[in-house]
Amino acid sequence: MDEQNGTGLNNSPIYHQFLFQSGFFSYLMNELTYQEYALLDRIEKVSEENAYADRRVYLKELAAQVNLSGRSLSCLVKCLKEKGYVLWKHDGNGSEGTYLIMTDLGRDTLYKNKTMLKQRFAKVITEFGENRMLSLISLWKDLEGVMNGYLTEDCA
Fold first, then answer.
1. What is the crossing angle of helices 34-49 and 70-82, to 10°?
2. C-alpha–C-alpha distance, residues 85 and 44, integer Å
3. Residue 58: which of 70, 45, 43, 72 has the closest Cα?
4. Torsion angles phi and psi, residue 87, rounded to 5
5. Domain range spanning residue 129?
6. How far, in Å, are 131, 132, 135, 142 from residue 138 at the CA level?
7. Is residue 34 in a domain?
8. CATH number for the domain harbouring residue 63
9. pLDDT tens, 34-61?
10. Residues 98-152: pLDDT tens digits?
11. Three-class DSSP labels, 107-121
């Protein structure tokens, strides 16, 4: 039991999220980490919404949509670039903005993993139950809302 509140729950959400991300996703995906998959998916969505013919996504746009520091985002983008999933370019001398363009390899890898995840999650949802899954998602969103309220609070 947890000494602070007697429930044993303080680290439980973090622990279970870690197990889900590191266990379930790492078991299913051998090409992408959970973070890489999520970022590629976000790049794809943003590139479809913007008006650029080359489907570029500016890092500023991306940073506004993902909950990562600029440094963390840059490190993750560097990994995607090294794997050949994105091109990382800049306007002018770079001071005007840097942007990403997803490569064919990036799109193919994302599509393959997305298809596989949909198939696996369909089985999980069937076994777990659609109503239970919807309830879980709703509760998780509520929990995230509460947790986000404490992000800037001093943890003293």
1. 90
2. 11
3. 43
4. -100, 135
5. 29-147
6. 11, 10, 5, 6
7. yes
8. 1.10.10.10
9. 889 999 999 999 999 887 888 999 888 8
10. 899 999 999 999 999 899 888 888 998 999 999 999 998 899 889 888 877 776 6
11. HHHHHHHHHHHHHHH
pLDDT of residue 141: 87
How many Cβ atoms sit within 10 Å of the Cβ of residue 38? 16
Whether residue 19 lies inside any domain: the answer is: no
In a domain, 5, yes or no: no
Average pLDDT over residues 25-35: 73
In angstroms, the CA 112 to CA 29 distance is: 10
Element (DSSP H or E) covering residue 63? helix 59-65
Tell how strand 86-90 and strand 57-58 pair up.
Answer: unpaired
**8-state DSSP, 30:** S
- Determine the residue type at 116: M
Residue 80 clears pLDDT 70, i.e. is over it: yes
> What does the pLDDT average to over 60-83?
88
CA 6 to chain centre: 33
Structural domains counted in the chain: 1
Please measure the distance between the N-terminal and C-terminal CA atoms of the chain and give it in whole angstroms: 21
Does the residue 127 lie in any domain?
Answer: yes
